[in-house]
Amino acid sequence: MFGLLALLTASVFFGAAIYINIAEQPARLRLDHRSALAEWGPAYRRGFEMQASLAILSGLLGAAAWWQTGNALWGLGAAVIIMNWPYTLYFIMPINKRLETTPADQASGETRELITRWGKLHAGRSTLGAVATVIYLAAAYAMTG
């Protein structure tokens, strides 16, 4: 049960993360500097709340599945999904802080470059979500075999 919930939450995390890369970020980059920054702020805050919670929940559920079944794939999947936290704190948070402290009326080409770099780094979160989902799928498959 824990494993299937870990798989579900990792899948939702991945879906939300890849949506940002495929739909939201390209649309944001079509806006002028000021509008792009004004849109990024609330979108980031809402996305952070959702994705951070999903990563923690999926990691805890994956660890519980590992403890329950002894299948190390659940633990590996949990470690991968939790890696979103240090990845975000180390690589993305410095850009977030700069964007969050830039008033929308002072947005510039440099702001656009930061938003563009943010999107590329966010793809790392999408990748971690995809990898965790695949590992959890392998663990679930191993349970049926």
Question: What structural keywords apply?
Answer:
145 residues, 5 helices, mainly alpha, 89% helix
Topology:
Layout: H1 2-29, H2 33-69, H3 72-82, H4 84-100, H5 109-144
Helix pairs in contact: 1-2, 1-5, 2-3, 2-4, 2-5, 3-5, 4-5
Order of helices and strands: HHHHH
Q: Which regions have little confidence, pLDDT < 50, spanning 5+ residues?
A: none
Q: Please outline the major beta sheet.
A: none
Number of helices: 5
How much is the radius of gyration in Å?
A: 17 Å
Query: What is the β-strand count?
Result: 0
Q: Could you say which structural class the secondary elements and strand pairing correspond to?
A: mainly alpha
Instruction: For the record, give the distance between the C-alpha atoms at the N and C termini, rounded to a whole number.
Output: 16 Å
Helix fraction? over 70%
- Give the amount of beta strand, in percent: under 5%
Average predicted confidence as pLDDT:
96
Basic shape? elongated
Describe this structure in words.
The protein is an all-alpha fold and 145 residues long. 89% of the residues lie in helices and 0% in strands. Helix 4 runs antiparallel to helix 5 (109-144). The protein is elongated. The model has no long low-confidence stretch (mean pLDDT 96).
What's the quick description here?
With 145 residues, this protein is an all-alpha fold. It has helices spanning 2-29, 33-69, 72-82, 84-100, 109-144. The protein is built from five helices and no strands.
